[in-house]
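To whoever picks this up:

The parser on our side crashed when reading a file containing two proteins. I've narrowed it down to the boundary between the first structure block and the second sequence. Both blocks are reproduced below exactly, byte for byte. First block:
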Amino acid sequence: MIIAQRIRELRAENHLTQAQLAKMVGCSQPMIVLWEKEVCEPTASAIVRLAEALGCSCNYLLGYDGY
């Protein structure tokens, strides 16, 4: 799942912990873990918030294009 990989990579590039990203996105830290481990996928609204927090486009998170 490309979303999980991109969340992990962008979080690391932005020097964010899972807890910090969760706070920025408005979800729990365990939810970030689930997304990064490919247990479940973020909702459309969560993808928008993730993109804003990580400084990329929704399309990039979904694997469609560059930043």
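<<boundary where parser fails>>
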Amino acid sequence: MIALGFFDGVHQGHQHVIARARQLAHERHLPLAVMTFNRHVSRVFNTSRQTDFRYLNTISQKLALLAQNQVDTTYVVDFDRDFAGIAPEKFVRDYLMALNADVVVGGFDYTFGRGGQATIADMPRYNHDAFDVVVVSELAQDQQKIGSTQIRRLIKFGHIEQANELLGHQYALAGQLVQSRQDEPLQFRPASRLQQLPPQGTYDCQLTVGTMELTGKLSVNRRGLSVTIADLKASRMVLSTGSQTVELGLLKRRVARSQQVTSAQVIAI
């Protein structure tokens, strides 16, 4: 059983596809695998979106979220120019039939082959009846498709609670906590410069540092990102071990009472 998709964010729409694949895997007594990619197409080709595109997850975060959705195995394909140029039949033969797939599951908008010329509904034309193909319909909210592009935009403009609702989990930044000076807040260094950051402001967040779960605030400004941990004892414990790998789960954006910011004003930031 193989579910196909880029799965950036592993949002509720993706979970909908994976849940269908998981159900079929259970019914047919098959292990559940996912095939995803290490790059987005806009990062491979010189498109107008190339400089603006940001990921919702690092690869490590994506793998962890897929595992939380009871995926047994994840295949991460190197999406480069050569892969992007393969014919649809070659993708089916060399990547799906080669894995002896019994069933392939994909969302209604999944495409493959050179230029995305084939859709999941076209796949039976290329597989010579080697496996079953299941197409999963879209998952929508308020008559709008739940998609990664929509979620990126929400985060970009600071609408964290709305983004989390569509994700079905907290939006989390991966990185390290470092203290440059003892009298200054902890600095947060993102693991990837390509992960989507929220706009300037202050955000309530939940920090995962090793086995510790802490609450704090993330400040985003022109100088960078800094973190204040509410529990001073825990903060000292984090500092005593040097730089720490951490995930910052964003909860909501704080707005000063003196600033009655409207949605339009937030978007203008």
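After patching the parser it read the second block fine. The chain is about 25% helix and 30% strand. The domain at 2-145 is CATH 3.40.50.620 (Rossmann fold).
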